[in-house]
Fold:
Amino acid sequence: EGVRRREVRCVVLEEGSNATVDDAYCDAAVRPAEVEACPLEACHWATGLWTECDAVCGEGSQTRTVNCEIQNEDGTCTAIEDSRCDPDTRPPETKTCSRGTCLWVVSHWTECDAVCGEGSQTRSVSCQVQNGNGTSDTVSNSHCNPAAKPPETKTCSRGSCLWVVSQWTECDAVCGAGSQTRTVSCRIQNGNGTSEISDSHCNRADRPSEVQTCNVPCQWSTGQWTECDAFCGEGSQSRSIVCQKQNRNGTSTLIDAAHCERVSRPSGTQSCQAEPCQNFQWVASEWSECDGECGEGSQSRTISCQHQNGTTVPDHFCSWQEKPRDTTRTCSTGKTCPPPTTAPADPECVNTDTDFFCATIVRVRLCHLYGRVCCKSCAGA
Structure:
């Protein structure tokens, strides 16, 4: 048993005031007691919070403090000797606990570190504990089974690296010996074909040549002979002579004649024999009818060059010296012309040409054009 105390004061009991005054103003016979006896609280065991589980993963343990305490008058508690509490009701200070499973966790493999051929790949391997909320934490590798640790490296293989060449360029010589080039690159084979890489990845001892000698054959080329330039008998014919170089694709290119050997140049002309000249002759048609109405008139005929088989050919196949000259001639109509009528003299009418000319004008009926020059002759026409 213990005691407890309280404060006792004499106050003025007025509305709105609780002022403390001297004790003499209050009745001492009814003064309340300031101290009284009280029973003490029993001693009890007090526990602290459990510590974190001391295992990183798997089974471990937790601890806490256990003290014997007594409650004070002010409501607080004070730790006292454990012997004052009942040992049979003492709470445990330790307990077992369990953490998540520790597992090896791997990342993705890196790219193969070889450009071509054999290389290696790496990945990170870490020991992690799986938390109950779906998350995980990385812990020391000592907490995972070392015998079950996945490998961190492995070998890998890339495509083969090889030299790739382009087509040779055209020979740089116009004719004869020259040189030609090509590109040489180191490439790696992959699923999409090949990709160019640094030459250092290919074997330099096997690198193909980029330059080689070449020879361009040049020769004379002839065209077709022209037709013989003689219409008959002996003549000549010619052909074109050009210097050409042979291309790789089978075609030819014209070049300056100075690149071909002059001593081997073929002839550009040769003699030829046309048909014998006696196979062609001039042939005259029959004379046309006399075209006059009375008195004298005129007739005409055509002169053509013909082969002995009767085919008409151009005139140059026959000799000009032997061509008949007469293609027109005068003729008689067999009719007598009536005497001309005398017309009144025209003071402006004067025959300025010969009588033969005006007679011809009358015969071919051209007085409407030459009436004034041959007015007398045309007056009776």
User: Anything to note?
Assistant: The first helix runs from residue 355 to 363. The mean pLDDT is 84. Helices lie at 355-363, 367-370, 375-379. The two ends are 192 Å apart (CA to CA).
